[in-house]
Amino acid sequence: MNQEPTIRRRPRVPWLAATVRSATVLSATVIAAAVLAGAPAVSAQEEEPIVEGETATIRIGDRARAQIRLAFPKADLDAALGAADRGVAQEIEQTLRDDLAYSGIFNVQGPTELAVLTLTGERAHDFEQYRSLGNEVVLLATIKREDDKIVLEGRVYDLPSAQSITGKRYRGLPSQARRVAHTLADALHLQFTGRPGIALTTIAFQSDRDASNRQELYLMDYDGHNQRRISSHQSTSGFSDWSPTGDAIAYMSYFSGSPGIYYVDLQSNRKVPVYAGGSLNLSPSFSPDGKKIAFSHTSEINVDVYTCERECRNPRRLTTSRAIDTNPAWSPDGRHVAFTSDRSGKPNVYVMDVDGGNVRRLSFEGDYNDGACWRPDGTHLVYASRRSGFRFQVTETSLVDLATRTLTNGPDSYEEPCYAPDGRHLVFTVKRGRESQIHVMNADGTLWRQLTHQGNNLAADWSPFAQ
After folding, report:
1. pTM (2 d.p.)
2. How far apart are CA 10 and CA 301, in angstroms?
3. How confident is the model at residue 18, as a pLDDT?
4. Which has the closest alpha carbon to 88: 100, 105, 99, 75?
């Protein structure tokens, strides 16, 4: 008999065979230093525009428009850079190109596309050359060394007017090469959209790569780089949820024997118990103010949704039906909680007010719907929906008119979807046989990328924007 899959950040609830099993607790958690950033912060200062006079402004804004066509010729590397520094510079340049392309804001033409042009180094001439390929703006990057730091300078110009749009300068250690690039990419995203970018965000997930059948918490950069373990419970731990300010991660662990709710304070690297009473505590979800956590708790023989402060003794019960109610997810405005319930006979996604009232059903397609995640603007929920056999598809439903669309359609099982903080990207789990790996895609279901390859990886949760 096939085992039911695990859905969205959480282990299976008791009406099905549990996929998370108890393990022997050998030691307390060990949280790695500099967990969130992975490195010291990158310093930054804004440069004066090279072109005197008024600066140009190009902004996408709220209205949909075509991507900004950006010419990004090969970066100018200081001749004094040594071989090692040139390798770092190439990593910065390639990371910046990847970030800009993945943002979806820019249509980037790089050295390959620009090779057909005849460039002289004379700005007026070269700008016209870039324009001849349909580009609207150009990014000129310079990379050099100052003392022990690598310096990235980026200047963006409006091609029709040749006016400066922005200039940025960032310094970091060679080990921070990728972060330097991410910082400039996010600055340009903000410049052109008025909204933060996701290049500096982080994804939490769980993996068994270091110990078979013992899943621990891990972090990785938004593009899959810099994967690192942040817990050493030597027991099953995971199904995480970021606090809204990115200062903590709530998670479930068998650390004390039965599943309890904990959170990691990422500033102090301290593990803090939230609630471990009873026989089952699952599915933590932070409130948008970060002061409370919703979770599933077994009271006697029933599973219901509860809330409590970060460190609590007496959780408050929100659901009171005889059904199994689990997998809560707090809405961005703090007024509602989505959850999974089998009160209709099969698991479906419901939404209730934060006091437990006004319960309404959101999912009506498929025979198993679970693991809702809110779009950051609060207008949609994404979740896993079983449409045939044991395969799930990533599905999105509008809270305005209940319009539903399926974002995946393939031979594998696509589960545990979670929005990026920009609402334009999704992270999710692809299950193929016994293997589970984490992928990302655009929120419309296009442009997939696999982020993990080592061991089995699942239950990813995307951090808020970098502070």
Report:
1. 0.88
2. 19
3. 32
4. 75
